Amino acid sequence: MADCIFCKIAQGEIPSTKVYEDDQVLAFRDLDPQAQEHVLIIPKKHLESVLALKAEDRDLAAHILIEVVPEIARSLNIDASGFRLVTNTGADGGQTVGHLHFHLLGGRSLTWPPG
Ligand code: 5GP
Ligand code: ZN
């Protein structure tokens, strides 16, 4: 999608520090990390948020949760210590980039609830 910063990152038009990639998914380090480990996991295909996921995206959503998240957590060595997986959605959810992304945060003890 034109003018989408994460589409541009997925297409390599904007550089990012990649931590995982396959044909459907890219994960890269957040520009403004909120924890020692702060990775954004995105589908390469443009989807506005979790609300845009359709039945045809079932395999993609499952792939992210079942394969991608655990693989990245293991590769960052935060699978045993724990981590947080968050997807901010819409204005009240604090979403600032309109391309579905999952924040994976770890490497420190996180508090709950968030602000
Ligand atoms: P949101 O606020 O939508 O949940 O999260 C957007 C995240 O994208 C923020 O944590 C922000 O720091 C990150 N971000 C915004 N622009 C860029 C960018 O160009 N590169 C990277 N690596 N992260 C970005
Ligand atoms: Zn996009």
TrEMBL record:
Active site, UniProt feature: H101
Cross-referenced PROSITE patterns: HIT_1, HIT_2
Tree of life domain: Bacteria
UniProt KW keywords: Hydrolase
Record domain HIT: where: 5-115
Listed Pfam families: HIT (PF01230)
EC number(s) recorded for this UniProt protein: 3.9.1.-
Motif position, Histidine triad motif: 99-103
GO molecular function, one term: hydrolase activity
Coiled-coil annotated spans: none
Annotated Gene3D superfamilies: HIT-like
SUPFAM superfamilies in alphabetical order: HIT-like (SSF54197)
Protein name: Purine nucleoside phosphoramidase
Lineage, top ranks: Bacteria, Bacillati, Bacillota, Negativicutes, Selenomonadales
